[in-house]
Write a structure and sequence with these properties.
This protein has seven helices and 31 strands. The chain is mainly beta. It has one domain: Maltoporin, Chain A (Beta Barrel), CATH 2.40.170.20. It has a 22-stranded antiparallel β-barrel. It has a four-stranded mixed β-sheet with strand order 1-5-6-4. The longest helix is centred in the first third of the chain and has 10 residues.
Length: 655
């Protein structure tokens, strides 16, 4: 079911998302099954010109096939799409609002950079709600880089990068409409249309409306599933010149009102109602362009702007803020014999303004220079080195290097990578984003967080069998933690010691005609300094063992049937009065789709065993935490067994 390929780093980092309109653009949506044809598709989407299997750094690619599958499960967001990638965990940061962050190989979610066509359209540090506001309708593929990618992405990519690549319009006009409903009274309606606008121009338009009714599943008066109303719209223009030049222009808007807290007429344990709301408005625009430069290579230009406003209420405390991100970059890439090279300059500005708590305002401006060299050595070796110098307005000059190597003996692929990067701290660690700024002491002088990451990846592929073993490690210095001052105030501090993470990923896959079976296992051993100053502890909410098994049958034009099982092991919990360690749990799911012509009917069952955290312990704390939260951390699902189903219509000759 999960067909992933490895993309060159330049494909993601240096932003060449615009495949030619010919074979590659068509094949992206035609689900080509032959291994060689899939590899060619990826090559068309890169600037290095190398085959996928010849790149030194591993990038996992979630293709359109799997996006189509997850679109039927969660049409309103991409959380499930990325969560089922080995080594990637979607961590709920606020059970009260349903917000989440993406954790890479045990590292904190704030270190993961989320991009759209290589642009920071969701901000330099995307909010925890942002992941839930992105429908997968118009995605062509999703690219995942694990480990420090600061060498080409800068300080926002200390833990890794997820790049969402848009679908490419075909030569024929086409459209889709999907309508979905859930047994928890949720509804989704998404639409997609694309087509030509003359000889050199094409367009796509994606729009969606999503809503969820508030649910108190355990009857304690506290909302376990927050309610929301959201609409999104994103038009895109694509241009291809006769000389091979390409350009993409995108604009997007999101409007959401989200509601949690206590139900009307009910109270928190202190006997008072507690309103918990977040209204968000986001506008963004971006440009990605590529032009051939005679005798040199290709010139790449990209730029974007994003503004996002929040109105939040935490009980009687109201907060209003605004976040802006401005970005511009230009680079030149070329090939000289067996050496590929790339050099460029960038600048990014991240601004935060709080109308309620201006003491937490920050304004980061970061110009940068970066470069990359790839050297082939014979037929089996490739060495790659990249480095970036960031001139941070608050944290000075920082150098982020990365070295990678590839060795390909026969059906084996061996990759090794070592990188270093840094992260500019902000007030918005998980606990503060979930509870607001009212109980946070004004920040002192925090040090920049820095990390060294390393990985060794061994892959094997022959015939219907594919296997991969990855060993990874990271050390984070000066990690920002929340320290308790008294019963109703906290502050941010740099950890007294490093956050150390060691682990491994194992993946096995077998394909036979339309059937595929994929198994995965991830081991994570993570420890950190205890904020209370009592030595070291296991990093909270980091399961040591996770595993998955997925089986899928699919025949294009007829439908698909799939089953999946995911195991999550015990997790150490922080400030939970009910237990020090979570219970392990198993989630089962099943999906069926029937396609008749251009109409598809689908039904999906999630969490069939009805695993729910509140079946074991209350979600509510006996008293409000010093940071302002009323709930314990989420260590298991809070929504239980859910069925969704709907219908999907396709129109136009492209289908």
């Amino acid at each position: 079911m999960k067909s992933r390929k490895c993309l060159p780093l330049a494909a993601v980092a240096m932003l060449q998302p615009l495949a030619p309109w010919g074979v590659a653009a068509h094949a992206q949506d035609d689900h080509v099954e032959a291994e060689e044809e899939e590899a060619e598709i990826v090559v068309q989407a890169t600037r290095s010109g190398r085959r996928v299997q010849d790149e030194a750094i591993r990038v996992e690619v979630i293709g359109r096939d799997e996006i189509e599958e997850k679109l039927l499960m969660t049409p309103g967001n991409i959380s499930m799409l990325v969560a089922e990638t080995p080594g990637v965990r979607v961590q709920v940061t606020s059970p009260a609002l349903g917000s989440s962050k993406i954790r890479m190989q045990g590292m904190a979610g704030r270190y993961t950079q989320l991009l759209s066509d290589g642009l920071p359209l969701y901000g330099g540090q995307p909010s925890s709600i942002g992941l839930l506001q992105i429908p997968p309708t118009d995605l062509g593929q999703v690219e995942v880089i694990k480990g420090s990618a600061s060498a080409l992405y800068g300080p926002s990519a200390l833990g890794g990068v997820i790049n969402l690549v848009s679908r490419r319009p075909r030569a024929e006009a086409e459209a889709e409409l999907l309508v979905n409903a859930t047994t928890r009274d949720g509804q989704d309606a998404t639409g997609y249309a694309s087509g030509p606008l003359g000889a050199n121009w094409r367009y796509s338009l994606t729009a969606g409306y999503h809503r969820q009714t508030r649910k108190d599943l355990d009857g304690d008066g506290w909302i376990d599933m927050p309610g929301y109303d959201r609409w999104t719209i994103r038009p895109r223009l694509f241009w291809e010149g006769d000389d091979g030049s390409t350009a993409l222009v995108t604009v997007g808007a999101t409007h959401e009102d989200r509601r949690g807290g206590t139900l009307a007429g009910r109270t928190a344990p202190d006997g008072r109602p507690f309103a918990l709301t977040q209204d968000s408005r986001r506008l963004d625009a971006g440009l990605v362009a590529e032009f051939p430069v005679e005798a040199l290579g290709k010139l790449h230009i990209r730029a974007s702007a994003m503004t996002q406003r929040h109105r939040q209420r935490f009980g009687t405390d109201a907060e209003t803020d605004r976040q802006d991100t401005l970005f511009a970059e230009t680079s030149l890439a070329g090939q000289s014999g067996s050496t590929g090279w790339l050099a460029g300059a960038a600048i990014q500005a991240d601004l935060y303004r709080s109308r309620t708590f201006p003491a937490f305002d920050y304004s980061y401006t970061v110009p940068a220079l970066f470069g990359q060299v790839e050297q082939e050595i014979g037929d089996r070796w490739l060495l790659a080195g990249s480095a970036r110098a960031d001139f941070h307005s608050d944290f000075g000059t920082r150098l982020s290097p990365r070295l990678s190597a590839l060795y390909r003996p026969g059906p084996w692929t061996i990759r090794a990578s070592l990188g270093r990067g840094f992260y500019a701290p902000t007030p918005f660690v998980d606990a503060i984003e979930a509870a607001g700024l009212s109980r946070l002491e004004p920040p002192g002088r925090l040090k920049a967080e820095s990390a060294t990451t390393a990985s060794l990846d061994v892959g094997y592929a022959r015939g219907p069998v594919e296997a991969r073993l990855t060993l990874f490690a990271s050390d984070i210095d000066n990690a920002v933690q929340v320290a308790t001052l008294d019963a109703d105030s906290v502050r941010l501090v740099n950890a007294a010691g490093p956050v150390r993470t060691r682990g491994g990923e194992l993946m096995l896959r077998y394909r036979w005609n339309g059937f595929s079976v994929t198994g995965s296992y991830v081991l994570v051993d993570a420890s950190e300094a205890d904020p209370a100053g009592t030595g070291r502890r296991t990093t909270p909410r980091t399961p040591r063992h996770t595993a998955g098994l997925v089986g899928m049958w699919e025949e294009h034009g007829k439908g698909r049937i799939g089953i999946e099982a995911y195991y999550t092991g015990r997790q150490t919990l922080d400030d939970n009065p009910y237990r020090a360690r979570s219970r392990p749990y198993l989630e089962l799911g099943a999906l069926a789709e029937l396609t008749v012509g251009k109409v598809s009917l689908f039904v999906n069952a999630e969490n069939i065993l009805n695993v729910r955290q509140t079946r074991h312990d209350p979600l509510l704390l006996p008293q409000r935490a010093p940071d302002g939260r009323w709930t314990v951390d989420a260590w298991a699902p809070t929504d239980g067994f859910v069925i969704n189903g709907g219908v999907r219509f396709k129109f136009g000759g492209g289908h």
